[in-house]
Amino acid sequence: MSEQSLPTLPMWRVDHIEPSPEMLALRANGPIHRVRFPSGHEGWWVTGYDEAKAALSDAAFRPAGMPPAAFTPDSVILGSQGWLVSHEGGEHARLRTIVAPAFSDGRVKLLGQQVEAIAARLFETLAAQSQPADLRRHLSFPLPTMVISALMGVLYEDHAFFAELSNEVMTHQHESGPRSASREAWEELRLYMRGKMRDKRQAPGDNLLTDLLAAVDQGKATEEEAVGLAAGMLVAGHESTVAQIEFGLLAMFRHPQQRKRLVGDPSLVDKAVEEILRMYPPGAGWDGIMRYPKTDVTIAGINIPAESKVLVGLPATSFDARHFDAPETFDIGRDENPHLAFSYGPHHCIGAALARLELKVVFGSIFQRFPALRLAVAPEELKLRKDIITGGFEAFPVLW
Ligand code: HEM
């Protein structure tokens, strides 16, 4: 293949939602491909399921926030001190251990009723709006944001402030792009977190900021690390789930038979959520998460030199027929669904149980509460947040 004709990322969804045919065709051609990234660099894109898992669990690969000197990461949060994807090995484990208990399956289970109550309140607020109403404003944004704010110990009322900063932080920065706005936003978010942590000294509580303060006092983390960890959790704790609610709803609108099936048998909700995560995960394009090999490595017989860019294409792995029957079919009753939407290995998503809970609460009751829920515009009129790593939409106007 000549250098000019290298496949180029991102590969956009069709109608904002369906898998890119280009991605599917490339994926069918083998588990790893030489591609050109939006930054202009060349590198590798891993689209095979087993190969992705192997790379994600191999200590030879540095995480997305630890690029070699020749590259800058896709967002300013990556590389920032304290953010979990900026650390590896023992240092990463030390930091992850501080926050992990708050996101364990057991702790998240205890939040179930609280999340249901928040969703029920938001459903009623949405129902009270005149139609069409923006579901992003009234449900997909506030639900995950209220939950993570409560867990962290910050006021949801601050959301107008921190959501704007978070958007700026989550904007793709392709090497050559200007970074100053993004850097300033990240600094401002850290400053905000520093202030909130200081407040917790006077008024501690059962929240993550108080836990982080204790970790600093016990010498388990520096103050800089704790602030970075806190600001990162606030961003990660809402951006992906907001987008996942929107992509999931769009998916259900496109597949009325599957929606009917879910309404007829609400016990399918667990499987439905897994299928949404597998086939319609967050992310504007079909790309994945970056890794950088420290040494020369071989993936599926291809030699990759140290310090290269290797993008692990999590969304593409969902279409690997070695692991999913009829992978291009959206089937909310799928029995075997070991998708990698939450990644794999030491950096797998710490918020997976929380995200699953939020998604189950939404998809388990929204079509009961709003049986005629539908988009108020043609899907192509929705504005995809193309520059934001997690995707989602500017607005999500609905009728019911
Ligand atoms: C549908 C929702 C979500 C999806 C699809 C998702 C996906 C992911 C993925 C793919 C990674 C791996 C990143 C990498 O290795 O480069 C990750 C990491 C992470 N996620 Fe999530 N996430 C979601 C929700 C959440 C929530 C609710 C939180 C709550 C705090 C969260 C916190 C994190 C953190 C802290 C990491 C870094 C973990 C580490 O490096 O050890 N995520 N997530």
TrEMBL record:
Q: Which cofactor does it need?
A: heme
Q: Which UniProt keywords apply?
A: Heme, Iron, Metal-binding, Monooxygenase, Oxidoreductase
Signal sequence segment: none
Instruction: Return any one Pfam family short name.
Output: p450
Select a single GO molecular function from the record's annotations and give it.
heme binding
Query: Which family does the similarity line name?
Result: Belongs to the cytochrome P450 family.
Q: Which PANTHER family match?
A: CYTOCHROME P450 BJ-1 (PTHR46696:SF5), P450, PUTATIVE (EUROFUNG)-RELATED (PTHR46696)
Provide the protein name.
Answer: Cytochrome P450
Origin species: Bradyrhizobium pachyrhizi
